[in-house]
Amino acid sequence: MAKIARVGFGxxxxxxxxxxxxxxxxxxxxxxxxxxxxxxxxxxxxxxDFGEKLHEGALRELKEETGMDAxxxxxxxxxxxxxxxxxxxxxxxxxxxxxxxxxxxxxxxIVEWSWFSLDELPEKMYPPSLKIVKHYMKKVIYDAxx
Length: 146
Description:
Elements: E1 5-15, E2 18-24, H1 28-31, E3 41-42, E4 45-47, H2 54-66, E5 69-71, E6 74-83, E7 86-95, E8 97-99, E9 110-117, H3 127-138
Parallel strand pairs: 1-7
Antiparallel strand pairs: 1-2, 1-4, 2-3, 2-9, 5-8, 6-7
């Protein structure tokens, strides 16, 4: 496989002070292997498809993963997510305008959805999602030291 940088995104659905996170499958094949996030808690999100605008991809992934609809996305974070065999530029969106309750739509990848207080996040968070939360809290969109 060619070593190329890809574009991904995460949606920080915020309801008061709680953020929606899904627990990835413990099986690395089912959890999505590119950034090695098995067993971690992650925001809804995914990879940008060719020809798709960022917000379209984010809304598509939200619907595919949770069954929810949303609007009014705001870019709050841009990060470099690099591991030994993968590189993503991750765009973090804040979303306060959403409809519905999260459902497990892709049970092989995400096994459950839950709301977490920003003050009490789970210990084992998916690194790109954790960076989005940190950027939101620091009110910084990009930090070269991340």
